[in-house]
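Running this now, will post back.
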Amino acid sequence: MNRSPNRLVAGVFGVVYLLVGAAGFVVTTGVDLAATDGATLILFEVNPLHNVVHLAIGAALLASSVRSAAAATVANTVVGAVYLVVGLVGLFLIGSGANILALNGADNVLHMASALLLLGVGLAGDRERAGTHAAATR
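Update: finished.
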């Protein structure tokens, strides 16, 4: 991974989200696509739409980690920002008809934690490398 924190984090998160998305389909058999009450995967509530989102995010993160440090930086920052919004909005969706991803409290905590880690690495993870590289090329 070329010692890039962004590539490493994007790769690990990508694989984890792909696995969670796939595992989600095992427990959501018979659950409507955008059901507001999903099935439980460990502590987290999921529905098929939530699983598709996890697969898409996992694929984007993994693909960016393979491509370049710059791509992984962008992916981590964008996905982190989206998860921050999802974590905050999710607080207001629980128990409502607008909860098309079947979010629960555990989902919101995980989304916020993912957001903080992805944003932190995305915004600061390769700064030292970039500064070292720039100094070496002068």
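The CA atoms of residues 44 and 115 lie 17 Å apart. More later if anyone needs it.
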